[in-house]
Amino acid sequence: MQQPPSDAAPMAARVQNLTKTFGAGESRVHALDDVTIGLRRGEFTAIMGPSGSGKSTLMHVMAGLDAATSGRVFVGDTEITGLSDLELTVLRRSRVGFVFQSFNLVPTLDVLGNITLPFELAGRSPSPEARRRIDALVESMGLGDRLRHRPHELSGGQQQRVAIARALATRPDLIFADEPTGNLDSRTGREVLALLGAASREHGQSIAMVTHDPVAASHADRVIFLGDGRVVADTPRQSAEAISAYMLSSEVGA
Ligand SMILES: Nc1ncnc2c1ncn2[C@@H]1O[C@H](COP(=O)(O)OP(=O)(O)O)[C@@H](O)[C@H]1O
Ligand SMILES: [Mg+2]
């Protein structure tokens, strides 16, 4: 597959010679093996690869949620390897949104409380503009009649939509979304992809999205494939058909 343009676009986040291992001795796992890659500012990047290839680990390390074993990690121009937990927390709160595979909703808060949690944590209440944005997110995610429900009263797909609304609510510079369309029906899935696309195109936000779905990945400006903890392909926007064909031919598919 084609290589991306080699222009030195500013990076929203990047890792240099990143290695991440889990465990020790016999049970040691190399989740990431000498990965050097950057997410270009304002771009929507899809990350694909088989289960266990290191996709979630790469996003967690890039977002400062998990420490590198070796190598360097930057968010914008800030090297985060070596920051204290407090410094990392402050950086994440002000700049990064994350949609986890496990949703990570707060069980004791209702839907609205979960969506506005990033504002609470930052000690500010949403501006009128942010309130309008939250209303629009609630509307497009079909959560209007669920605002007072708690996570355990929602389906998996609804919880996922709450997590997406929460990640977009503060309009962060950088959004990591781990299989954000995995539990959604196709209509809501398209809505999520449209929201992520608009976040990058209209608001210059940088998005990294893990997906197994070639149709979802075809919405991205760039597709990165991981295999066994390494980057095995890095391509500009592709059609769903081309992505499927590549996944079949290289057996890097889901
Ligand atoms: N917390 C952890 N402890 C031990 N091994 C882990 C942990 N997280 C991930 N791994 C291992 O690292 C590898 C990559 O995992 P992951 O990044 O979750 O892959 P993916 O998201 O592509 O499915 C896998 O072999 C996985 O079992
Ligand atoms: Mg994963």
Automatic annotation (TrEMBL):
Species of provenance: Microbacterium testaceum
Q: Which SMART domains match?
A: AAA
Whether Transport counts among this entry's keywords is: yes
Q: Which UniProt keywords apply?
A: ATP-binding, Nucleotide-binding, Transport
Q: Where is the ABC transporter domain?
A: 13-252
Q: Name one GO cellular component term.
A: membrane protein complex
**GO MF term set:** ATP binding; ATP hydrolysis activity; transmembrane transporter activity
| Protein name (record) | ABC transporter ATP-binding protein
Q: Which Gene3D superfamilies match?
A: P-loop containing nucleotide triphosphate hydrolases
Highest taxon, organism lineage: Bacteria
Signal peptide (residue range)? none
